Give the backbone structure.
Amino acid sequence: MNEGMRTTMTDNLGMKRPAFLLGGLALGFLLASPLRGSAQDKDLDRIIFTDGRTVKATVLQDDYDKVVFAKVGRAKKEVPASKVQRILYGGLPKPFLDGDKAEKAADQGAENSQDLYENAARSFELAANSAKRAPVKALGLYRAALCRMKLGLKNKTLLPTAIKAFQAFLEFAPKSRFSLQARLELARCHRLAGDLQGGLKVLDAFSKRILDETLPVKWDALVQIERIRTLLAGGKPRDAAPLVDGAARSLAEIQPKTDEVRAYQVELKFLEGKTKIESKDYSGAQAYYQALLDKSPKDPDIRAAAYAGLGETCYARGMAKKSVKDLWEAYFHFGRAYVLDIRDREMGARVLYYQGATLLALGPLKAGRESAATAKGYFNQVIKFFPMSDFAALAAEKLK
Amino acid sequence: MKRTMILGLAGVLLLAGASARAQKKAIAREIEFAKGLASEFGFVGLGNQVLEDLLNRKDLSPEDIDRINLEKCDLLIQAARAMPKVEKKIEFYEQATSKIEDVLSRFKGKDIANQARMLYAKAALNYGQVISSLIEEATDPQKKEELRLKADKIYRGAIKACNDAKSALEEARKTDREARNAYYMAWMHLGELQKAWATVAQNETQRKTRLEMAKGTLENFIYEVGDDTPAGAHCLILYAQCSEMEGNVEDALSDFAGTKDSIWDTLTSKDNPPDPNIVPILVTVMEEAYYNQIRLLNKLQKPDEAMKSGEEMIARMSQLRDIKPSKPYGLLARLEYAKAMVASGVPAMRRKALNVCKEVADLAGTSYIRTEAQKLIDYILTTQQSTVALDPDLLYKAAEGSFRSGSPFKALANVKKTLRNLKTAEQKVKYGLKTYKLLGRILTDLGRLADASFAFGTGCEIFGYLDSSTNYQNMVADLAIRCQQVAGVFKTRLPADSRDMIQPLKDYANHIVSKFAPNNADFINLNAAKELLAKKKYDQALAKLALIKQNSDYYEKALVTKAKVYMEKKDYATAKRILKDYLEKYIPAHQNLQGRAAMARANMEPMAWYHLGLMAYKEAMGDAPPPANKPDPSKWKEVLRIFERMPKAYAYNLSFVEQGWYYTGVAYTAMGRLRKAQEAYKNLKAAKKTSKLIPYLALDIFRAHLNRIRKYERTRNLPKGTLESAYKEALAFADEYIKGNPLPQYAVLYESFNFALNLGDQEKALSLYALLEKFYGKNPKYTGKILKFVKPRVAEILQKMGDFNRAKPIVEQLLGAYKKGRWPLPVLWLGVFEYGGWLEVDGVRVKEILGLNQPLKALEPPLELMPTLYKTVQAPESKFSLQWYAIVAEYTYLAYRAGLKEPKWFNEARTYLKVAMSIDDFEGVKTAPYLLKGKEKAFFDRLSPEKKKKRFKEHEKQRQDLLRIFQYLKSKLMG
């Protein structure tokens, strides 16, 4: 899953926005809004519907299947969640605003981002504890969990805290609008913490929910992709390989084919080859990625993924056989992948990380005196520009 | 920012009355051309080159030469301003100010001195600003204070220069218009410097005083010239800035507003319209006022008022037809206006701000303002993506801005964003190649050369077919060639045994060139020839080079490469003929080149000289192919002729400057002209601090010093002091070499250590020993050498200095390095002296040196140093030699001192004393022979009669001293 999508909150299938941005934009919009009027108005939530209508009301329930709200002096009303584009909460407590500010500053790459995320997480937790309305409390818990995850992405030892934060949120609001994405993030945190069973357990439960409640097919695709990632990370590539076709079918069913769906499809193609790399079937992986290249001479996304795959194949083989030639080939494949990849998401981080790792593996005797400094540059770029990626913590480890 | 403006005014005011002499005019034209290259196009290096060429003219007067040198300083100041790195800025300003100071010290009272003073003021204003920014960044209070004092000194110097200029011009200004203009310029600079001086005041009171002083100066100036003149209006703005610094922002704002309005009235006056020649200057000053006003309003967080002022400026400027925004103030004012719009938070205003920034970036040429505008674009796009359309033009500008302002990662992110937003065919044609080119440049800058090569190549692959126009295809070919060039550079950065590994990259680059630069067959042939040359396939390389046509941009490169092939083939005659034909016939016949051909010429001409010089060098060294394979010292002159002019003639290419100074130094060294060699060495260091040639030249020069010293040491009847001064010169050079060198050569340190000892400079010797220890003390290759040859001498120095505690670990290490009883004689002596001390004769008085005052340690087990030493002189031929008596005396002394602690040792002492006295009360000492064996004897036999005589004299002195020592011991032991 790519970086942008992993942090996506989904109101319905057509609307996606990075979670950490949503809070910021919502607040920014609210604070700058010319519609802001009386104190009472300020405390009301703004429900923006997919047809463009906006309603000011108090949201009583904000779930992934329905939204319940009440206008001043009127009876409760329930609408399907798919008709709501987004909700901008009013009357948010001060700690929430503080948390939002700190998180935003950290997202923008402030030097003390770890401290800021920590402060943000605490503020959101405080806001959740003091919230009077359930949807606001859920939002606070979710935002706190996201901040905890961001901390964990830079420092793996903090992932258990993130896992607990997501679990707390899901326990409080199992049907919240954010709960579907939260389940995926929770599984991801388990995977990154090296807890294969924990991750699979979360995904199994999520799959059951999707089936029981007939949730949109997108979630099925995402769960399957995360399951493949988890199995690969847990050293079970042979269990992961058969899942690829199912995930591809689910992705094919999603309409419309947004850029994000397309990005998942590209990632899935990469993962298919990765199952061969992890099975140490290097020639099979090479042939697979080469075939991808041959079939897609004019598709930069697929080509970037294929070159990244070829790079990882050569890297794994080079490390296994201590072959300098393979490592050099890996470095060049990653180079081609980097310049072809213009999405700057997880694939970008992956390629940069491996470029640095390859140079380190070659060492100054083979790659020249400046290779260590160049490798450091690759890792720094991952940390600074891909803080939400799976590779941020790995890059930070390499810099130690 | 204001400095350019002042220079502009200075130019207008000063050049108005330029001299009429034809030659001066020609020189002035060249100078203006050089300045234009630097200021209009940012080609400071080229501008400098034009001035260098001008300096080569033979009809220049000494004053002309200084004038041109001053203009070079001016370019240096411009270069410093353009430099992104602060260290480099400081280096350039230091160079400029020191050169100007040199001119000032030599030309006090002459016209040129005033020009130098103004330049000094200009440099000081810029340099001071750089230091002020460092003061703001510094966190260490001591560092802050140091910087403040430095800035204070710079400003003081410049203020004095302005006052001097004013005094010098006081009389002349009454009659001479040029002098009057210069006088006013000095006055204006004085006011501005005093204002800047206030920023580095020690305390508030001093700051206020300085600001008062500045205001006074400016006020008087305004009264003198009138506030309706451009210079007066400019000073009114400076005056308002003083008010701003005092905290009187309302006054400042009112003065800024008053100035812009009053100039606008003048510009639009129907009754009394301004002279058209003066309109651009008036506009500049008006925009300066606008800039200051909007800047201050932004600072006061009044974006609405700032926007109003900006809108008014735009509206007024649109009424002035054919007048573009002035540089820098017009552009800076617009940037401030854009900032105000961004600060307003109104989405429409932010969009408008983007357009303003775009306009500024397009108009700003290569100046730093372009980078500022691009940074602001980046900021707007980053902070408010949702409200603005993602226009590739803006994204590209943001990417370029991030790159230029030293944020390469951000630039990479912006490049990718630009590529993502190329939606239409038109956008792809316009920005596709350009963006991939920028990607390649950023990656090159980051040292990711393989990635860069792929970026250039990928640009060709994705966008190479979009447009068939010649211009577009030229751009594609350019990218393809870059792809191959960067791959070539990448190869050179790798260790030799990895170079074959990059075949995939080379194959890719070759494929890109053959596909996207098919018309560049010459380029491909040239590269193929180079590859063949590297593989020593000379005939095939020549065949490839022969394919390159004379009308090709690569022809000159082919010629020089051809000569190189013959050089490698050891056919120097043909190589020289080709190079000489190229330099003497081809170049004069083919002038006025353009584009790539001009760039090739700029490199190939020095390269041809370089190859000629290298051949002469090899002939001089005897490394040339037969029959010239014997050293031919007469060739050094040729080496010198070629390389000595290179740094000046090809100053634009650091590599040739570096080679030029290196071979000049080598040639002078070989010719025995060490001072000139050392000059070249200094120049090499100044030209490129990190040059890898520095240690080689240093070693060459030092070796020459050493050879000279060895020669002197062998020479009889050397004039007194010659050897000492040779030592001193060698030591001085070694100092220069060691200073700042991260790893000085062992040989240099070791020999310098010896020189210092020979000079009797013990402190120096110890400091060199410290360096030997620091750099080589833990290197197994050298520790043995240091132990054997250096440490005994260091211990000896320390003992002589009475510092036995410092000597102790060294002596112990020396003793521990050998098995017991196998100590070399000097080490034994050191051990005995360390623990037991010795007796010393000072005039006629005998003095006891106690050492560590542990005589028993030298006498008794486990070490038993003294008995071991005594055993060394037990052989019959050694007995009763002077050395034997010396050892007996030492033994007696140690036993006597031990007796003071344990009385039984007194008997031992008396026994030894009796042995010494056994031959008729020390009569034996008086006749003790000067016994030498083996190498020592052979060396002695080779000495001149005078030296032998000297040695005997020394022997005699030692004999006398020993007699005194024995008498002393007798008095102590036998009463």
